[in-house]
Structure formats: C-alpha cells, structure tokens
Amino acid sequence: MTATHTTKRAVIAKRVDSGTADTTEIRDLARAAGYDVVGEVTQTRTEDPAYHLGEGKVTRLSNAVAREGAAVVIFDNQLGPYQTYNIGNELPERVRVIDRFRLILEIFGQRARTRKAQLQVELAELRYELPRAEAKASLAKRDERPGFMGLGEYDESREEDIKKQISNIRDELESIEETERHRREQRRESGFDLVALAGYTNAGKSTLLRRLADDLDVDENDDLHPDLDTTAESEDRLFTTLGTTTRRAEVGKREVLVTDTVGFIQDLPHWLVESFKSTLGSVYHADLVLLVVDVSESVEEIREKLVTSHDTLYERNEAPIVTVLNKTDMVDDEEVRRKRDALSSLAPNPVAVSAEQGLNIDDLAERIDHELPDYERERLVLPMTDDTMSLVSWIHDHASVETVDYGDQVVIEFEARPAIIEQSRAKAGDLVGASA
C-alpha cells in the first residue's frame, strides 16, 4: 500500500442524540473530497463534553483506525477545539481528526477556481481556525504535550496573523462585490432581466441552466481569473458550482441572464454561511429567483430544505421566488402531485420539470416571463436622420420592437424594461433637439 493511498483512507464517525445515525451524506462528502471510506463508528447518546462520543466508543474508534490503516477520522458533527484535541490523544500517532465543516472546506478549496471563490474559502478556513488557534495558545500555557494532536502545530503569533488576514480578505471581497454590483447595473441598463438559480447542492441547478440558456455569457469573475472554465458543470458531484456562471437566455420577448450559484448545504454554522454570503449576491439582487429542489427526495427532506432556503433568501432578497420541482423523470406523476400538495404552504404553485430530460421547460419559461417585472410600452416619433437609424438599431438590440414606420419621420413602437424606456426617451430627446 502506497503512502499516498494510505493518507486517503478514512473512518467515518457520527453521533446522534436519538434514533439511528445516517452516514449517507457524510460518506458522499468524504468521497467528494477524495477520501476512501474504510470504516465507520456511530453512537446514539447525548454529547460528551470532553470527547463528543463516549470514552468507550472513542476506544472503538481508535481500534477501527488501527485495524483499517486509516490516516483520517471524519466526524459528521461539529467538534469543539478541545474535543478535537482529546480525541486526537486517543488515536494512533499522526492520525488527523476533522469534522463535517473542515471536510466541506476541503471540498470548497478543491473546487474554488475564481479569485472570489478562493478568497471565500480562505476566509471560511481562517474563521474555522481562529478558535483552534486560541485553544492551542491555552494548551501551550498549560504546557500540554507538543503536537496538539488533532489541532496541529502551535505558532505563537498565529492568532494575530489570522485576524489580520481576515480583515484583508474582507476588504478584497468588498472590492469584488462592488465591481459585481456595477456589472449587474450595466446589464440591467442594457435591457437584461436577471434570474438567479438557488437551492441545495445536487438539486440540478447547473443542468437547468444549460437547458434554459441559449449561449454562454460571462462569469462574474472572468476579469479576475481569465483562464476560468466558464461552462456550468452538470454531474452528480457535490459542490461543483462554487463561483457563479451566467448565461444568456430568451424567454418570450425578453433577454434574460440566468446565473447559477453555490448550492446551499444543511446544518452549516453561522461563520461558514457568512463567509460565502457574497456568492449569494447574484441571488439577492436578481429580478427573479428560481428555487430548485430535487422532487425525488422525501417530503420531509424537501420541506426541511425549503424552510432553510427561505430563511436564507428572505433575509435580504426582495425578488419573487418560484419553486422548481426538478428531476420529475425519477418519480411518477402521482408522486409529483402528492408532493406538490404536501408542500403547497412552502411552495405555492411550483413548476415541475426534468432538466435532465428537458421536460416542461417551456412551461417554466412562461412562468419566468410572467413573474418578471412588467415591460412598459413606448411609441417614439423621430426625425429621419442617420443618428435616428442608430437609435432604432439600439432599440432593436435592447427591447422588443413591434412596428417601425419609415416616412418623413420614423415611428417606432416597442416594449422594454422601464430603464430602457427611460434611456430611449433621453436619446430621442437629444435627436429631436439636435434636428430642431
């Protein structure tokens, strides 16, 4: 067995207060991070303040690690710094102890490709590490054994370094967000409606984006990371989307920009959600949000995810939200109807689709057109000049033109977003003034 392979061997551990511990998700997360899960230890009991698990169960965990030759223990729980240290003391030497959130950060680190995503991962890692650095300082003062087991090595100046780095990253993220806000406004002024895809990881947002899109537009951070692969991935893998991918789509008469964003994850601590909030800027500032859920999951799972999603979205979001029940190809029509009825209080009038098979996408497009802000109608009478021809061309590019009559004057009737109507009136006023 090679050393590289050994370092990827992991034993899963999970504690629940009651019932039976389900390790399906943590196994998926571990595999997404590249680990080979070779064993698991679970326990149903109240949390032990010192070890999280009971001491006897920690002994069983240590034996499983030694037996399987594992180098990592992954807890599907949040561990405190001292619990991590205590568990590490009971395991074979050089065995790492990581909890659910450290694992998620590893995955994020592997997937972050834009400068913004990389900064957000770094910020979350620093926020995770800060209380552990404080714990290591406390242990050092008590002259505990070197190595700090699951906590890693101790550096006396690390605490202050972390705080300084957090401040610097916040400043850079704020600068990126300002650039993105400016870009969103430019897109609106160009006549685009902004639609954001939100929902839990693996709900099928990236696949839906590909179905809706006509062509690739630009990633939110393309100028910061020019070698970025701007295609939206569509594969059964957790957290494939960390940055934002934006594509152009035609919905009825409208030109729409649809943005795929980072997926929500269950049971995330505040510090981790906070680190990735700027990624949700595309959701918070959209004209419409499509909340995508996997209809093949149980009603209980979907309900829990909808509640958490609404809590996240309603905090800062002002746009209407349409729930999309995706993956209808995996269930029959009766099950879709049953789940639609059961979830009606959280998802009134949802749209059921299969992004994978392209089923009901036209109905979704109609709903998007209906929910977006109404277009305004305008009729302009313009002098017959070369500059007028340029304005007519501009209106064709930014609005839905109904008629154009050319005679002694040019009369053009069209529908557009209010911002485009205002711009067209201003441009028309300049033309009329210049020809007077």
Automatic annotation (TrEMBL):
Gene3D superfamilies: 6.10.250.2860, GTPase HflX, N-terminal domain, P-loop containing nucleotide triphosphate hydrolases. Keywords: Coiled coil, Cytoplasm, GTP-binding, Magnesium, Metal-binding, Nucleotide-binding. Mg(2+) binds at S206, T241. It is found in: Cytoplasm. GO terms for molecular function: GTP binding; GTPase activity; metal ion binding; ribosome binding. Its cofactor is Mg(2+). Its main location: cytoplasm. Residues 109-189 form a coiled coil. The keyword Secreted does not apply. Residues 193-376 form the Hflx-type G domain. GTP binds at residues 199-206, 260-263, 326-329. GO terms for cellular component: cytoplasm. NCBIfam families: GTP_HflX (TIGR03156), small_GTP (TIGR00231). GTPase that associates with the 50S ribosomal subunit and may have a role during protein synthesis or ribosome biogenesis. Belongs to the TRAFAC class OBG-HflX-like GTPase superfamily. HflX GTPase family. HAMAP family: GTPase_HflX. Monomer. Associates with the 50S ribosomal subunit. This is GTPase HflX. It comes from Haloarcula quadrata. The gene is hflX.
